[in-house]
Amino acid sequence: MNEKIKKASRHTNQNEGLIFEKSSPGKRAFELPPLDVPAADPAKTLGASHRREGIEGFPEVSEIEVLRHFTRLSTWNYAIDLGMYPLGSCTMKYNPRVNEFVARLDGIATEHPYQPQELSQGCLKILRLLEKCLLEITGMDAITLQPAAGAQGEMTGLLLIRAYLEKQGNPRKKVLIPDSAHGTNPATAVIAGYEVENIKSESHGQIDVEKLRDLVTPDVAALMITNPSTLGIFEQRIPEIAEILHAKGALLYMDGANMNALAGVTRPGDLGVDVMHLNLHKTFSTPHGGGGPGAGPVAMKKILEPFRPVPTLVEKESGRLALEPVRPDSIGRVKAFAGNFGVLVRALAYILAYGPGVRQATEDAVLNANYIRKHLEGVFDLPYSLPSMHEVVFSDALQKKNGVNTMDIAKRLIDYGFHPYTTAFPLIVPGALMIEPTESESKEECDLFIAAMKSIAEEAATNPQIVKTAPHTTRVRRLDEVGAARKPVLRWKPVTTRSEAAD
Amino acid sequence: MNEKIKKASRHTNQNEGLIFEKSSPGKRAFELPPLDVPAADPAKTLGASHRREGIEGFPEVSEIEVLRHFTRLSTWNYAIDLGMYPLGSCTMKYNPRVNEFVARLDGIATEHPYQPQELSQGCLKILRLLEKCLLEITGMDAITLQPAAGAQGEMTGLLLIRAYLEKQGNPRKKVLIPDSAHGTNPATAVIAGYEVENIKSESHGQIDVEKLRDLVTPDVAALMITNPSTLGIFEQRIPEIAEILHAKGALLYMDGANMNALAGVTRPGDLGVDVMHLNLHKTFSTPHGGGGPGAGPVAMKKILEPFRPVPTLVEKESGRLALEPVRPDSIGRVKAFAGNFGVLVRALAYILAYGPGVRQATEDAVLNANYIRKHLEGVFDLPYSLPSMHEVVFSDALQKKNGVNTMDIAKRLIDYGFHPYTTAFPLIVPGALMIEPTESESKEECDLFIAAMKSIAEEAATNPQIVKTAPHTTRVRRLDEVGAARKPVLRWKPVTTRSEAAD
Amino acid sequence: MRYLPKSPAERKEMLGAIGAKSIDELFSSIPERFRLREALNIPGPYSEAEVIQYFKERAAENSNGYTSFLGAGVYNHLRSVVTDAIIQRGEFLTSYTPYQAEITQGTLQAIFEFQTLMCQLTGQEVANASMYDGSTAMTEAVLMAERLTGRRRVLVARSVHPEYREVLKTYAKNSGLHVEEIPFTASGAVDSKALQAALKDDVAAVVVQSPNFFGVIETHAALAEATHASGGMYVVTVAEGVSLGLVRPPAEADIVAMEGQSFGLPPSYGGPFAGVIASRDKFVRQMPGRLAGQTVDSEGQRGFVLTLATREQHIRREKATSNICTNQALCALAATVHLTLLGKEGLREMAEQNFSKAQFALSELLKIPGVKRTFDAPFFNEFVVELPRSVKLINAQLLRDKIIGPHALGTAYPELTKRALVCVTETTSRAEIERFAGALKRALEQPV
Amino acid sequence: MRYLPKSPAERKEMLGAIGAKSIDELFSSIPERFRLREALNIPGPYSEAEVIQYFKERAAENSNGYTSFLGAGVYNHLRSVVTDAIIQRGEFLTSYTPYQAEITQGTLQAIFEFQTLMCQLTGQEVANASMYDGSTAMTEAVLMAERLTGRRRVLVARSVHPEYREVLKTYAKNSGLHVEEIPFTASGAVDSKALQAALKDDVAAVVVQSPNFFGVIETHAALAEATHASGGMYVVTVAEGVSLGLVRPPAEADIVAMEGQSFGLPPSYGGPFAGVIASRDKFVRQMPGRLAGQTVDSEGQRGFVLTLATREQHIRREKATSNICTNQALCALAATVHLTLLGKEGLREMAEQNFSKAQFALSELLKIPGVKRTFDAPFFNEFVVELPRSVKLINAQLLRDKIIGPHALGTAYPELTKRALVCVTETTSRAEIERFAGALKRALEQPV
Ligand SMILES: Cc1ncc(COP(=O)(O)O)c(C=O)c1O
Ligand SMILES: Cc1ncc(COP(=O)(O)O)c(C=O)c1O
């Protein structure tokens, strides 16, 4: 094994088939307490037409088989608990265990959204305090905690803008979106009933303010901006941008996915942003869980407040908190019940642990990103050289010469014991290496990452093949994605897999 | 990678140094709530002579570093949760998660041994019910739950015998122990103040009853027997053996480590055993935790009851339960407080889950052992051919011819994705392969084990070198145990390791 | 701060390496006047013990110690500690969306198993990796139908969960969908005549919930047939998944939108849960959300990847089938573990216990003078009763007995004032049901 | 049964493969008449929910909701959820004793780190992987001294934990040791004159606890010197490990026997805890228990193994240094994680908080008429007060205020009736201390 690979070794790792392949009639992993009422006969009471026979192919296994199955599967994953996760734009930071603990408390995890509000004051106080903390951090006037994730937050924000403009007589037609934006931005605009106008960044990767002046026509409803941009660069002229929009009656939406660069240092509200979402599963450390759940609260200025989704949290004169289900101008509900409460609990636990110290987290995040940038500048091409905030975006231009692209480098990182960085975007950087270390990485881990990246760059020059065929140390090698999409196999079926299991 | 190896692959696995090597002054992973009383000045109140400066070399790391450190370490371990653990005599069975849950409940984990007994009835009821269940399973008259493990149970049992005999005027001198016994048996006898007389097993691996008649002289206090023996064979003549001892005023101690072969099927008390210990961390599934904690309750016949360790659990006429600290003839305490309570809780949870169904577990354990024996007979030498109960003991006689011994085969099993079987004993089988699957293994897992053992046997014949140099798939290879013992390095020291870390 | 792995010395050293004099230098691109001078005004920092204490105090202000008869879309079911033990393993809990397949096979295979279980439960051919919840799953199912039919009229049964319908309306407003509601009959089921009347060749989807909001089990065959006759898609939403252990799956549906909360997820004051969309193979390319698919690696071994990504926002941007990105993966994993634990027998037995207990509860309540059953159609674990008085007032009285009474229907259904939706699951003991009946009887006996 | 991974069909198939007609055939070697006919008479089988319910009911019969001032060898200290998250990982929880080093490096390195931490805390050169608890660790330390000195007289301070002394006597009885007790002075410390008088050249060990059972910190120098002068070994036992964050370690000791419960282990009604023995390198071959050592593998990489096994029962049998086999590994791991979390600063701060709170509690109690301090020597987080009345009666009154009063010393020390051992840790809030003082004051004001 390569001497240069300091962070990882290979070790024996259990194989495991699909749970359905372990099934055998009569095995079970769960028992219920005995029925303490007369057994009703479904055939009679329910009617034969409604009655279902046993579910064909449903698993029949024992408890130890279930525990081992998923434990073995888990050992095939990389995770924050195992090491650095430099995924740009994803803010994969430490997920404190105490947050898991409090979210599971009796009286927290056990509460029903329809229980009387006098028996829900604890839940409501949690929501209220989180609202207050997020408003203080963003510098906004009002907030909704309902959206389930960033994308839904984006939609909620655009619907707020739409409702506000409608109230003024004209919802307008277009939303401007920089070409550096995340894919959810344009996808969301469409759902909110807007046409997307993509705007080109200027040569430094910033919004072209001069061009913007012309682009903001009377049928532009809003500009969706990400700040810092997905290049990790702060949009310096954002106050000016806000003015331009406001002058034309349009509003400024900020994608807050990169708040980890700003929390405690500056506030979007002060910068002229009208509405924004936060990704609590990024900036506020709720675990990503292999793809959620998250939460995407939307913070807004006063003018948008009347349009907030219902239910809205209000403080009664009695001091009692209540969720109000109806408001005349509300855009309505974006999700059933009061948001991903369990996620909101974790985010508040995270904020309380830091208090005003969130600023220190932000500083360390920016420190790590700049430290990595400093050491990798020159080794990798840096297409946009303005100062980096919480992340830095390189390109594979130098390695391309040897036929090595960003995906190859990413896969080779796996052999070096790291999760790859983000390769999928920003689209304005062909062959992007989007690196966000977050504040959770020690200097030791950053140094190992830098060493790995340098070593791979060297391999790309001297031995490109080893990079292009990476990873070499994982239990499976590169997978056939084309084949997977051409002839999709999206579920297990009794016959097929039995035979597979056989061969 | 060998086609024959179906159960495991190699996968990337994180490296990790010693926690002391990550330390940097000022980092911390734990904070306390602020002090809410006046801070006392130790220098003044305690006296400078008693006051200590900061502990040199003590770790200074952050929470994420701690979590990652131990998470990474954990991934280097094999465990029941990952796969079969055929360690003979160790009964490595499934450890149900609900047992961990109940042992941690507020009101269980939080209780102080000195709190008023009227506030401890819950704890005492748990102890009482466990006593009743274990007495029913063993067929004995009285029990103590105090011993912390099997070895301490053995000592407790021998002290009971000694106290009983002393009461009769003569504690006697010797304890007879078969050459097949576990190492703790003779070691314990010495601590109990007895000389050990090892007795040879007869040709079938059983106690030589005829010889025993002569061996049981007036200065023999007891015979320590393991049943089923460590060969996995039931001592058929145990009732006769008991009679022989009793006729000479000696008592029969049974090492209950192998109760997993008997629970629900037969009862040592009925077989004439006078006193025995149980290993709750074997038969009753409390997790082995890398070497404990366990619990070694000792069950006994009436004649020994007066000598039980204090405190003893009694039922007051009021129905109240109480721990009585003093009893005239008690052998005294073997351990502080009331035993490994948390372990006892887990064992009771296990028993309640099965109820009388423990018999089914015993049957499955014996079924698995015989299934494996059937398939490996002939492939490996079977020195003792009497019927197997819960485990089967082969020898490496056939493989020795090619210079492959039991340890080599054990190490090669690791490459096949299994934990090795027990190699260290029984001593009466040179090159023993002591295999105990337990009831927790599915047919699938047993079949994979059988296939692996056959494949290794074949390798031993065709390619012994690969077996002798195994394991080949682990993150570290065979370790230098001789060097470790010759120049022991038993702790990290600042200077040495810094330099190590450097090179 | 305990979460930050840096000592002051290390920060200095790193700044030095960067060549910055101070940390502020790294923020120089933020206009001076916008940089915060004072510390944020938020509580903390709290030690771990203080964080726990804060939430324990809040928990004590909630409903601990009460027996609840609430369902209405969120159900109390037995959960195994095994599920929690699994989803708290860092390798699952702290792993990202499995875009890098070689080091996320665990999550990918689990998603593939989830998709399979959802297909088995719903009688559909394909299911996705999860949506935010049942309400957005139902909404996205309608949007999917819109894409597939190119039509814009949507008929939603009024017996669909009121909040689900509200969410649909929020999304519909701006996608130019016209949503109309189909009434329910005296038996509590969808009014098929009204549906027939409303069905024209401009209908994209007919949306029915079963068991519906009143607990009533809908009969799909006729409804689906009528829908298909008009060229529309028949969309079924399921809020109480446990019913599928006993009740025929909506095999006639073109799209099924299900809420997975009943599969091992705690009520958690309304979330996080896990929605799912299941449908026909032929419709998969219009499906929203992630899909895990089986494939092989360069050495021919079986493996799993996220596939058909060309439907998704990170590839297609404004042309994507949905804007969903982060979904509810860990909740879907919990459901996968939970359903695997339950297995064929366990799920059926759980469903049957719900059914029997609800039958028992109904019979107990009907013994009380003045209590009437509202709908006579078969139901699963929820049913509607009519009370002689305001449900809110009665529930207020029940609280004194530490009972959280049934959900009052009057707000969402003005025509159903004095009607209450009673939910009973396998977690409700006979004693609790009897205590509830007794307390209700006493409450009704009291003079107004 | 849910824990058993076999279907009836698989059992049949396996019996067939073995060639047995019935499962009973496999038990044929058990004489017929001894085979059980009826099912065992034990409760169950319980579902998971019923198991949990049983233990929750028992928990409710214990001391939930009371504030306790008990210490006396078992201490309430803050514990981090991180510790529990780690030790519940199956790879640690369900792994066996690490005899197979190649697949147990995780456990082995953790033990090595534990040994290092124990050395750092106690000021010793070598520590083992754990003993059952403090009482057996102390006892084995004495047996170790016996082996090293070949002497048989043991002098134990009467201020050593009464239960530790009882355990020592149980073991001593049959190993021909003669145990004598050394009294304590009016200040609560060991009576060095009495020790001097008792010391002869036949003394194997002098055993002192610090902080001793009364919370008093002993001064080792003189005691150790006297012991060494007579050729005996100076053995120090530590029951409250947190004290070592603030108090000088017993560097003069030849052997230290410590209880690790204070390092992240819950009281758990008295166990499982983790004892440890620390000593000098030169004595290591007489040490009981397991030891992990650093070594290299065949490729020169650093690794760890269990070493010096020739001391142990599985190799030496009747000649072993001890019969201990299974020890308290998982508890030792918990202590390792806990101490790593605390770190240098955290441990010191915790110790200082204990110290300050105990000082505060003493001053509060001394304000109460009739309450006197018994010993004037410096103490850590426990101290003894004299009450005007029976401690038992007063404690009975305190229970009404939901307070579990201090430990009554009269039973173990007849000469100390009306004396109570008060323990205060960082978990005891000022408010609780004041509430206790108030309740005690009221109790004493009541006419007898
Ligand atoms: C910049 C940006 N915007 C929006 C999103 C979408 O957020 P979510 O995945 O929570 O829907 C992401 C997440 O990947 C993002 O990085
Ligand atoms: C047969 C036998 N006896 C006694 C023991 C000792 O039990 P413990 O390790 O619990 O002290 C063991 C455990 O390995 C054993 O296998």
Provide the descriptors you would attach to this structure in a database record.
heterotetramer; A: 503 residues; alpha/beta; seven-stranded mixed beta sheet; 11% strand; C: 448 residues; four-stranded antiparallel beta sheet; binds pyridoxal-5'-phosphate
Please explain how this structure is put together.
Chain A has helices spanning 42-45, 63-74, 97-103, 121-138, 150-167, 184-191, 209-215, 238-247, 268-271, 341-354, 358-376, 397-400, 406-415, 443-462, 464-468, 481-486, 494-502, and strands spanning 8-14, 142-144, 174-178, 195-199, 220-226, 251-255, 275-277, 298-300, 312-315, 321-324, 392-395, 432-435. Chain A is α/β, with parallel strands linked by helices and 503 residues long. In chain A, the strands form three sheets. A seven-stranded mixed β-sheet of chain A has the order 2-8-7-6-5-3-4, with helices on both faces. Chain A has a two-stranded antiparallel sheet with strand order 9-10. A two-stranded antiparallel ribbon of chain A has the order 11-12. The longest helix of chain A has 20 residues, at 443-462. Chain C has 448 residues and is of the alpha/beta class. Helices cover 37% and strands 14% of the residues of chain C. The C-D interface holds C 48-49, 52, 78, 80-81, 85, 88-89 and D 48-49, 52, 78, 80-81, 85, 88-89. Strand 1 of chain A pairs antiparallel with strand 1 of chain B, so a sheet runs across the interface. The structure holds pyridoxal-5'-phosphate (2 copies). The site of one pyridoxal-5'-phosphate has 14 residues of chain B, from helix 5.
